Amino acid sequence: MRAVRAVLAALFLLLALPAFAVQPDEVLPDPALEARARVLSQELRCMVCQNQSIDDSDAPLARDLRILVRDRLKAGDSDSQVLDFLVARYGEFVLMRPVFSWRNALLWGAPVLVLVLGGVVAWVGMRRRREAAPATPLTSEEEARVARLLAEKGPQD
């Protein structure tokens, strides 16, 4: 029974691994070029799926992009030339990790700006709270009324 459970657990773990969408007819015969193609494919976003790389996506456009990457590598392009070609064709959105530039500086800096702004708002709020007038003590009449209310209510469980 333990062996069956172990085999089932192993199968479930294998199913949890990411499935690569690269088809056998796409694989290059040169292992070095294929390794470069796989690395590049993991850095490129599927324009249909948007949350997957073209290496992981089964979409027809992802297949076309994988073939395009391999064609460019076979033609002798460097990795950066392939990426530059695809960015020129599809925009920076095709990159899984966009590069920092002045065009997207706000996108990269927005989380920091929000944290700084939140810190300033919290600091000002706490400072105002400290500067607020201290609570005035209860008058003797108010103290007597509180004591009466507490005595009427009785002890709490």
Q: Give the integer mean of the pLDDT values.
A: 82
Number of helices: 6
Q: Fill in the CATH topology of the domain at 20-101.
A: Helicase, Ruva Protein, domain 3
CATH architecture of the domain at 20-101: Orthogonal Bundle
CATH class identity of the domain at 20-101: Mainly Alpha
Give the strand content: under 5%
CATH homologous group name of the domain at 20-101 = Cytochrome C biogenesis protein
Portion in helices: 55-70%
Overall shape: elongated
**What structural category characterises the helix and strand content?**
mainly alpha
| H-E string | HHHHHH
The CA-CA distance between the termini, in Å, is 52 Å
Number of strands: 0
The main pleated sheet reads as: none
> Which blocks of ≥5 consecutive residues have pLDDT under 50?
none
Describe this structure in words.
With 157 residues, this protein is an all-alpha fold. It has a domain of 82 residues: Helicase, Ruva Protein, domain 3. It is 61% helix and 0% strand. It has six helices and no strands. Helix 2 packs across helix 3. The model has no long low-confidence stretch (mean pLDDT 82).
Nutshell version of this structure?
Helices cover 61% and strands 0% of the residues. It has helices at residues 2-16, 31-43, 60-74, 79-90, 105-131, 140-153.
Write the layout of secondary structure elements.
Layout: H1 2-16, H2 31-43, H3 60-74, H4 79-90, H5 105-131, H6 140-153
